[in-house]
Amino acid sequence: MVVTQHRTLADRVRADFPILTQEVNERPLVYLDNAATSQKPIAVLDALRHYYECDNANVHRGVHTLSARATDAYEAAREKVARFVNAASSQEIVYTRNASEAINLVAYSWGLNTLTAGDEVILTVMEHHSNLVPWQLVAQKTGAVLKFVELGETQGFDLDQYRRLLSEKTKLVSVVHASNTLGCVNPVQEIARLAHEVGAKVLIDACQSVPHMPIDVQEIDCDWLVASGHKMCAPTGIGFLYGKLHVLRSMPPFLGGGEMIADVFLDHSTYADVPHKFEAGTPAIAEAIALGAAADYLSELGMENIYAYEKQLTSYLFEQLNQIPEVKVYGPQPNADGSGRTALASFTCGNVHPHDLSTILDRAGVAIRAGHHCTQPLHRALGAQSTARASLYFYNTREEIDVFIAALKEAIDFFGDIFGA
Description:
17 strands; alpha/beta; 4-stranded antiparallel sheet; single chain
């Protein structure tokens, strides 16, 4: 089923998210900070509660009933995540605390052991700090050279410049799929194809795409892909790394300890097969099980339905923002049907500081983000110290966008009267 009416999906799911019925400053909560973290449905909260109430035990380490049930649920969740992104095997899914840890895993396990002086790593100026800082540290240790794809004319990925940067020296291309600031959706399948032509590996930061659109890692043909659970209706403290099986098996362990070993002697150890080789110590068991519940929840709704509905929200959001003269939105404009970007808008309003704007909107019950969104180099390239950001998810409605727009206009008028902004 494809959603055709703008409120169909939101009406269907609102009751699943109790927090959305709360009030802020005696006004109904309008939560538009979904790019930072999503709200959690009852099904996910129930999965957490069920584990601790019914199955609380360590995994892979006991033969008693509780441990067996916990292990089964933990590994079943891995299977669910693998199906969610169409991995070829659940062994290609490594649990991590978040996407940042997943990128660091690749950087320290693969990067430090593969890159040498003069090797080149291609990133973009729009990367989240989590996909910049680890590679800076690796480059400092190995002598590798970081190169950056700049913004194109519409403030999206410059594919022509990317082609010019690629060479036989390129060993890695690590790029964001959908920018958390610009909202642009980068052509990751073409990016991967071109990188592989020169023998480079490809890592995709999919934190802002996995929750919002269908993702097929085999179709993209990336070597690694990372995502954070908390942005896709799962708890905090859990994320995952997808990696091609042969690539993961070629990588040495990232952390040492229990769980990731085969045999331990006083002077050496042998290691378990993937994914356990990269999961040292007692894992976030409840959170992983709840991640599986989140994947189930989103799959039952249908990622195609979520994407179709969010395109409608995107089109309406930009239609309204574009009618406010003081608002400057960054990133490409959506197509007429709302496609071409994700359902978020980063913007400025003349001389009004985004933090002041966010504070005023909060008093009206509207939660948005203000700051550099962990993309300081991008903000410098845009000539903006910080931006305000409204980001939507499938449980948001057009009516909530109307509330946001009305509060935004009132805030602009207020600061205009006070400061002449």
